[in-house]
Amino acid sequence: MISDNIxxxxxxxxxxxxxxxxxxxxxxxxxxxxxxxxxxxxGLLSQCIHNGFGLxxxxxxxxxxxxxxxxxxxxxxxxxxxxLETMVLRLTADRKVxxxxxxxxxxxxxxxxxxxxxxxxxxxxxxxxxxxxxAGIFTAGTAQRLVxxxxxxxxxxxxxxxxxxxxxxxxxxxxxxxxxxxAVVEILPYIGGLIRNEVxxxxxxxxxxxxxxxxxxxxxxxRVHGVTVARVDQNRNPISGTEKSIDCDTLLLSVGLIPENExxxxxxxxxxxxxxxxxxxxxxxxxxxxxxAAGNCVHVNDLVDxxxxxxxxxxxxxxxHASEKAAPKMGIKLVAGDNVRYVIPQMITGERxxxxxxxxxxxxxxxxxxxxxxxxxxxxxxxxSEMLNLILSETHLNKMKKGTTQLVVSCQKxx
Amino acid sequence: xxxxxxxxxxxxxxxxxTGAAIARELSRYQLGTVLVEKGxxxxxxxxxxxxxxxxxxxxxxxxxxxxxxxLPPGTPLTxxxxxxxxxxxxxxxxxxxxxxxxxxxxxxxxYVPLTxxxxxxxxxxxxxxxxxxxxxxxxxxxxxERIDRKEILAREPNVNPEVVTALYASRHVIDIFxxxxxxxxxxxxxxxxCKILLNTEVIGILQNGPHQIVQTIRGPIxxxxxxxxxxxxxxxxxxxxxxxxxxGLQYRKTVMIILDTRCKELVNGMVRWPNVPGRLDLVQRxxxxxxxxxxTYDPTNRPDDTNTIREDVIxxxxxxxxxxxxxxxxxxxxxxxxVRVFNTRDVEDHIVEFHPSNKKFLNVMIRLPGIIGALPMxxxxxxxxxxxxxxxxKKDDFHPYRKTxxxxxxxxxxxxxxxxxxxxxxxxxxxxxxxxxxxxxxEAIKRGASTEEGIRMRTRAGMGRCKGGFCGPRVVKMLAxxxxxxxxxxxxxxxxxxxxxxxxxxxxLRNEKGIA
Lengths: 415, 516
What we know:
The structure holds two protein chains of two kinds.
Chain A: E1 8-11, H1 15-26, E2 32-35, E3 51-53, E4 62-63, H2 64-77, E5 81-83, E6 87-91, E7 97-101, E8 104-108, E9 112-115, E10 119-121, E11 137-139, H3 140-150, E12 152-153, E13 157-161, H4 165-176, E14 180-186, H5 195-202, E15 209-211, E16 213-219, E17 226-231, E18 244-247, E19 250-253, E20 257-259, H6 262-267, E21 291-293, H7 304-322, E22 332-336, E23 340-344, E24 347-348, E25 354-360, E26 364-371, E27 375-382, E28 388-392, H8 394-398, E29 406-413
Parallel strand pairs in A: 1-2, 1-9, 2-5, 9-21, 11-19, 13-14, 13-19, 14-15, 22-29
Antiparallel strand pairs in A: 3-4, 6-7, 7-8, 10-20, 16-17, 17-18, 22-24, 23-25, 25-28, 26-27, 26-29
Chain B: E1 6-13, H1 17-26, E2 33-36, E3 54-55, H2 57-67, H3 86-104, E4 110-118, H4 121-137, E5 145-148, H5 149-155, E6 165-175, H6 178-191, E7 195-197, E8 202-208, E9 211-216, E10 219-228, H7 234-239, E11 250-259, E12 270-272, E13 279-286, E14 289-296, E15 298-300, H8 310-323, E16 332-342, E17 351-355, E18 358-365, H9 374-387, H10 413-422, E19 429-431, E20 436-437, H11 438-446, H12 452-459, H13 471-483, E21 502-503, H14 506-512
Parallel strand pairs in B: 1-2, 1-10, 2-7, 4-12, 10-18
Antiparallel strand pairs in B: 3-6, 4-6, 5-6, 8-9, 9-10, 11-14, 11-15, 11-16, 12-13, 13-14, 17-18, 19-20
Helix pairs in contact in B: 1-6, 1-9, 2-4, 3-9, 11-12, 11-13
């Protein structure tokens, strides 16, 4: 059985978790554990068989499984203890973590913990799509697993609600599989995911897009046989008289991702109501000392490369915490201002360079970002779907007035 | 005519809580009992989508008060109480009886406190009516206390702070999960010799000498007696005898909302406004979730009109917030619609009677609340069958006790380790949200689950916030593996609800061969 002399225990082996475990090991932790609920390492990477991974981190265009494999091999080579098909049942503020697998239930007390549980998909139920409850309604990610891993098609005639990245990728994937994607329905006046997916997955395959529309009814008592869609007004309410039915056997949902934080919540980690993830400082540490977090359980990222970088940071600092190195004081709060939905991290030292990640609320052209009065950056175009990185260098930080406790990050239209 | 696929002494039509309770009761005797259900699982209709508490006292008094609007002013309140109806008798008897049977059948249950709150003059007047009638009736109806604002907030801290007074009863509501009750009753019936046929819609009823033939889509069943427990479809089944009855069935739908377990602390029990005609407004703890039923009973013309209307959900949430202001749309993990069936021949009561021209065809038309009275109802039905000439001989080897599928989520680590030691599949957690293991899923299949919904109702797998996003594909694979069927044959519930339509590449191969 597992010994209880653990420096760093990482929960979740997706890109954030694998990077955290590898980095913790490289930063000098002897005993690193990587806990995964699924049958294999890699999290969702193994079902993301499309390309576009690794452009930043490896400067290569890779598929999800290829990107993941690089890390899987490193994990295997670096004597990290891997526990597969192992669920974390409980987590406490003082870092007692209860694991469950076929060998039994056991509670461990690692010196540091990295939360890397990723995110889950919003469901038909959570957005309250009315109608019957037939078979044939899937979230896009579940459909992706079914098609790419299990080898089954959820349906033949498909309508996709929401134009998130997974939804668009599945529109292309199912078309390539011979299914007919009859429409991608988006409630907003613009596509929700990345531009490259809009072009490569929808336009290149001539998939009909219905912007400012939503699904107002699901037809079929036992299996979906159609959906009713309608145009929406500015308040996103369906406009009566614009309803039309589309015959289909399947409705896929790509209506948003929610950071998975049941364990964080259970332990008493403070969560940000906007991101749904833990409030973290520049070390990716939560309010609970020794509990770190990284990747999509902190905030939903658009690119895996950023997730890996966050995981590495969390892993390195988790290793430092495990070796009882004193933690620096986080004295400055980063606050989301005009047209900024959130900023990660929420707390910094103000003493060393830090990359801050943020998303805007509304799309805009010709904008200027300000971080307090110490930094500005202009951008031609911003979109809520694309995460932005701003680097606060030591030169910027040196401009900060003494006694500063808060920096507002804002995005305003130029001129 | 085709050869019968089965011979029986009694055929029960309908696998809801009513049919299941009758099946269990009949399985005490040396009889061939067959239950046929048209759905792909038991509890395909009302039982699945019902509020389903086992309740007494104030809740019943509340529904009596509702009727007062129909009476002339000045009628004494006690006129509202009809002690001799089946409805009243079974509610009273049932409530006393259920606890021991819930234990016997190892069904999870919990007494939850009931708080009927009032904030304005009108509500206080309604509340006092309930109080007065409860006190006049005495016994279990009077077993409550009146509490003030401070006490209310001490017991239900998240209640609307504008409340001024409430009636509070600690033992008037037993929180149960309705499908678990029906399934447990059915399991007992099966263990004691009853046969259950799912996906077996009845399409005709014929007389054949001294016997009756129940024609189903799977073939005929020859039987002596027939019990029609088809509820919303009961009138159609009755019509098949060749002579219909005037039931005047009315269907009323209500929407129910489930909130994430994260909010379970919002209420400790059931909190509701005093009843007003045509409405139900309550928020309650259902196991570790919050259940909201706030709304009207809207007429519909079909017993399977479970179509959820968006506006109903919005209105329901608005009303729920008047009870518990901190309720949020963000925490909704499920919404569903239940259809309640009422007969207009005797609106106030259940109708249990032999068909006037067929003394071996028993109609059991149950109105709500159905679960609370199910046990005395089943005995009553069996008694009627006996009176009609069916010879009942008790079995010596009737097994009353049932062990539930282990509820891994609720167990201590010590017990969990013992389970895993005996069967490592109990260490493999498949449903993260509800902490359901492979061991439980395999056991559910052994006990008769054959669809995704069957697994969900028996184990809770897929009932949590991610709605099967993680466990769904795994559950489907386990069903296929255990039932030895192709994955594409796994259904959500009935035969016409396939989950996965074909293998990857199948469509491409078909197109290549030129087949559309």
